[in-house]
Amino acid sequence: MVPVNDFRETLRGTLVQPHDKGYHEARAVWNGTIDRHPAVITKCAGTADVIAAVKFAREHDLEIAVRGGGHNVAGTAVCDDGIVIDLSEMRAVWVDPRARTARVQGGSLWSDVDHETQAHSLATTGGIVSHTGVAGLTLGGGIGWLMRKHGLTADNLLSADVVTADGEFIRASDDEHSDLFWALRGGGGNFGIVTSFEFALHSVGSTVLAGPMFWAANDTADVLRFYRDFARDAPDELGTVIRFGTIPPLSAVPEELHWRSAVAINACYAGPVDEGERVLRPLRGHGTPLLDLVSPKPYLAHQGGLDSTVLHGWHYYWKSTDLPELSDDLIDVFVDHAFSAESPRSYSVLFHLGGAVSRVDDDATAYTGRNSPHNININGVWRLDEEERYAESETTWTRRFFDALEPHREGVYVNFLDADDGTQRVRESYGEYTYRRLAEIKTEYDPHNVFHLNQNIEPTV
Ligand SMILES: Cc1cc2nc3c(=O)[nH]c(=O)nc-3n(C[C@H](O)[C@H](O)[C@H](O)COP(=O)(O)OP(=O)(O)OC[C@H]3O[C@@H](n4cnc5c(N)ncnc54)[C@H](O)[C@@H]3O)c2cc1C
């Protein structure tokens, strides 16, 4: 048993231990396949609690897991036996509309940020599912609807407040601890616990032209060939994500289309609606869409539009890779594999990068992969009560699809790595040069690898 009484006294937040009510809810993360039992969960109320928790963990030699939104598919936000430093109750967001900046606490979700920034018709690039955590997403890079116009989430980071492995509080920005600031923009949770982020915001208005268009799965090759040319010339304002899978039973979808296999191009135009209508017209007019749900809508509604398709507690298995332009051979792989999952919840998503993401110098941040036009995330999905029926088939489907992409693979986005991807893929995700630079900074800020439950960068000593 870890002696927590004195520690508890030092906290403004709460401690949860295995015998406490709420322990099982507190240890659960987004991916229901993760089932770990920490000795202590510290629900921090503020930075002082984070500092106290790091010091306590070091004193008692406890393994540390850090929790932001709890979304990481590999389940790195929770550990067995050690301590979870849980920031999920630190979700305040302060917007300065004049300066167009927001300060965001380290346990915030994207829905928190969008809610506060949209009160001023502002936004910054966030994830495409609004219950994802700001912290993990930003620290890995951050891709989303607005990235082609406004860059990665990490490109919009102005400063970060960090509690180091020694329990010290520092601020990292271009002017202070600039090496650490470089590493935080892509290097993940390796360097300290971020208690707040400061972001640049942009005027996006409160209404965007956005939504999905669906075509029958049989039309995939034709749709992707058309999309390849369309996307190449698309303005930065247009963010698109292709989803291969079944049509979710959302209220806006006619019942006869529920669960039907389809290729969906989901779009968000970060500019005037009439301009977006013009840009999207050729795509919307292509072939015979089953359904077109593109319309002017609140940005907030679009940001939350996919939330119910990836619920907390379902079981997930992922594989991901960056990809080049859509060659005919690559399109054949999608046609052969994208629709052969057995679970109707399994899907894959192909992001269109480029634009502002690719215009930032490769070595300006630790994020790697700026020159890849696409990345794909293949997601095997099933519910707990479907474990026997789907766990094996969906894992196999995910791996087979991923293996078939082998000749086309470029790199991988670190935030999409699953638990079995291993250290080699972390290195692959950064490339030798960036990995080495990250390892040097890790050695400076966390030489004993206190923060190792993550996509780990090993210190050089
Ligand atoms: C449904 C879904 C949709 C997604 N969509 C996108 C997307 O559109 N774009 C995108 O870029 N990514 C996306 N992701 C991936 C996402 O970026 C990662 O899963 C990310 O790790 C989530 O962050 P989190 O804070 O919720 O994670 P957590 O599981 O809480 O944490 C993951 C790791 O991040 C680190 N960490 C967390 N909080 C802190 C902190 N305060 N300080 C320091 N380190 C911390 C720790 O190392 C921790 O192990 C998506 C994930 C899911 C599950």
Automatic annotation (TrEMBL):
Ranges of residues in domain FAD-binding PCMH-type: 34-204
Phosphoprotein listed as a keyword: no
InterPro entries given in the database record: BBE, FAD-bd_PCMH, FAD-bd_PCMH-like_sf, FAD-bd_PCMH_sub1, FAD-bd_PCMH_sub2, FAD-linked_Oxidoreductase, Oxid_FAD_bind_N, Oxy_OxRdtase_FAD_BS
Keywords: FAD, Flavoprotein, Oxidoreductase
Highest taxon in the source lineage: Archaea
Cofactor(s) of this protein: FAD
Recorded GO MF terms: FAD binding; oxidoreductase activity
Family: Belongs to the oxygen-dependent FAD-linked oxidoreductase family.
Name of the protein described by the UniProt record: FAD/FMN-containing dehydrogenase
Native source species: Halogranum amylolyticum
